[in-house]
Design a protein that fits this description.
The chain is an alpha/beta fold. Helix content is 30%, strand content 21%. Helix 5 links the parallel strand 3 and strand 4. The chain is globular and about 50 Å long.
Length: 184
């Protein structure tokens, strides 16, 4: 029910302001443009540094981005030996895991080359770029029409750990250890 009285804004007027871009205009006037390293102020990623443009990534900076996942992630931290971050994007989750609890490898699957570059840069900002536990896989992870499962196996050899893969789009069957992904 719309409020009445002097200075009251009805829901339809508020909707009109949102649609007109008034809120975006105010945000653009108050928030500096451009991407630069910023230390996250609140939330799950508090204290970590990421290249952020506050005009479009302010939720991460303020601890509000994907907030519904925080409880599950916090409960899992400390209980796992390795992790897989499918759709790793800019690397927020895998960096958080590396900095807090991971004892084994973190597999970061991200098929977009531009996001992989940002992930690597963010890892460097947080002193994780040379961490041997971070394995960046620049491929899709999921199912194929030939196989409904994605099998991931870690095999130890003299050269380090390798990720053996099965079921990536375009693959035909299991790869040999020679074809595995080396740590990056």
């Amino acid at each position: 029910m719309p409020r009445s009285g002097r200075g009251a804004v009805s829901p339809t007027a508020a909707d009109a302001m949102m649609k007109s871009g008034a809120v975006s205009a105010i945000k653009s006037a108050l928030v500096p443009a451009g991407t630069r390293p910023r230390k996250v102020a609140f939330g799950l990623y508090k204290g970590l540094t990421f290249d952020l443009d506050l005009r479009c990534e302010s939720q991460l900076y303020l601890g509000l981005w994907e907030r519904e996942t925080y409880r599950s992630i916090q409960q899992a931290v400390g209980r796992f030996v390795w992790a897989i971050d499918v759709g790793a994007g800019s690397g927020e989750l895998c960096i958080r895991l590396l900095r807090t609890a991971a004892t084994g490898p973190i597999f970061a699957f991200e098929p977009q080359a531009s996001r992989v570059a940002v992930l690597r840069h963010n890892a460097a900002l947080n002193h994780c770029a040379d961490d041997s536990r971070l394995i960046i896989v620049d491929k899709l992870a999921g199912t194929t029409t030939a196989d409904d499962s994605l099998a991931i196996e870690i095999k130890h050899d003299r050269g380090g750990q390798r990720l053996l893969r099965q079921g990536w789009p375009g693959d035909r069957g299991r790869h040999s250890p020679q074809d595995g992904c080396r740590r990056s």
